[in-house]
């Protein structure tokens, strides 16, 4: 089974199925929902601080697969001798301005300067909580290559990344990281844009990362859609799926999954172990900050899914059933 390129209508990319993006017609009910919200969407107790023991990176993971969850969708993936950073966001706020917008619940557990040498950086799409200007600028004088969805490269170039280091991928396109790690862009159900204008003029993607021993899936942002089964049939099974569980809401069910749909996606992908991402770092919805993880535990138990939930900043080898449940230390209920 092959994956087709994303369809376009004029300048705009299209999802594989009709998708409502919580656009202007939903703004008033969404505003009322936020104003009346009583959930603990921002932690009452300060999270962390979390600190990465960077000496761990001096030794390769015994299993070949180790993950450091920096927060949200920022992951340092060590897979079969390669180090890959996904959607790196080190700024305090995910917004057009560092004076306003969603603020981090905890500081990044390691500084950008403390990162070990990288083989690749993956940029899934252009939203502020995934594509961070100041973080990208840090890499301007480095030599690490970037792999991104079609159209996202314009921002990387604008912020100082040499065009020779940028590989743009459409759905179904593949590239090699080094000579033995295969990266393929695959569909997601989402949208793009960094302002009121220009929406969906750059692409959003998920990614299959296949090393010499392990095969993993980075879901980035996506709502529920039949494409997960297609990806599983074409590229699965996966040793690890990394799927978003946070930022869901009743007025935007098409563009984020939540724990129930995420666990269904994991099964459709033929995943062996599931890691939740896109939660516990920024206030991007009206649910309690810890609710996605709490609900995930229940859904995974009922669906017989092995979870992998490392503590922020802790380099952890992927082991089925590893659940640190670190968030429970900070819950106020």
From TrEMBL:
<dbReference type="InterPro" id="IPR024884">
    <property type="entry name" value="NAPE-PLD"/>
</dbReference>
<feature type="domain" description="Metallo-beta-lactamase">
    <location>
        <begin position="83"/>
        <end position="279"/>
    </location>
</feature>
<dbReference type="InterPro" id="IPR036866">
    <property type="entry name" value="RibonucZ/Hydroxyglut_hydro"/>
</dbReference>
<protein>
    <submittedName>
        <fullName>MBL fold metallo-hydrolase</fullName>
    </submittedName>
</protein>
<dbReference type="Pfam" id="PF12706">
    <property type="entry name" value="Lactamase_B_2"/>
</dbReference>
<dbReference type="InterPro" id="IPR001279">
    <property type="entry name" value="Metallo-B-lactamas"/>
</dbReference>
